């Protein structure tokens, strides 16, 4: 499947291969170190190009380039609620794993040092060059719920807070360098 061809309604499988790149479907591959022109030749023109970043909306990914114009970073932008892609890493969809499962899975794949200086919000698995992030935890939402209840506004915010509490079970972003 060539990425320039209009994709079917079904989700496109995107396999993130740590330290190497990504494979889209069964054919298209973008590798770290490739030039911007090579990436555009593989994926076509991006929906948005800003500075040294290409945004592909239909693939829900961002690709960053270093000062030499070579791929240095890729990120899945819409996790865990991908609408157009089905992301995989090591044969699993990381967005289907709750936070503790994902941490354990990536720690096993990493088999070494983990940068946890932003623990509970973000982790970097140094041997496989994978980072995960979330902007809130269940503790944050539980504190908000308590404050809203004390203010007598819980019913007004109940639905949104319950959705946020569900979202905190998962890391929202994961990327590779």
Structure at a glance:
It contains four helices and twelve strands. The protein has helices at 36-43, 99-110, 138-150, 154-167; strands spanning 12-17, 21-24, 28-31, 48-50, 53-56, 61-65, 71-76, 85-89, 114-118, 122-125, 130-133, 173-176. The model is unreliable at 1-8 (pLDDT under 50).
Structure annotation, total helices: 4
Summed over residues and divided by their number, the pLDDT gives a mean of: 89
Overall 3D geometry? globular
CATH class of the largest domain, named Alpha Beta
Supply the helix-strand structural class.
alpha+beta
Q: What's the total count of β strands? A: 12
User: Portion of residues in helices?
Assistant: 25-40%
Assembly state of the chains shown:
single chain
Low-pLDDT windows of residues = 1-8
What is the helix/strand order? EEEHEEEEEHEEEHHE
Task: Write down the domain tally.
Answer: 2
**What CATH architecture label of the largest domain applies?**
2-Layer Sandwich
List keywords for this structure.
4 helices; 12 strands; four-stranded mixed β-sheet; eight-stranded antiparallel β-sheet; 177 residues; globular; alpha+beta; Beta-lactamase Inhibitory Protein, Chain:B, domain 1; single chain; disordered N terminus
Walkthrough of the structure:
The protein has two domains: 1-96, Beta-lactamase Inhibitory Protein, Chain:B, domain 1 (2-Layer Sandwich); 98-177, no CATH class. The strands form two sheets. The chain has an eight-stranded antiparallel sheet with strand order 4-5-6-7-12-11-10-9, with helices on one face. Helix content is 27%, strand content 31%. Strand 9 (114-118) and strand 10 (122-125) form a beta hairpin. With 177 residues, the protein is α+β, with helices and mostly antiparallel strands.
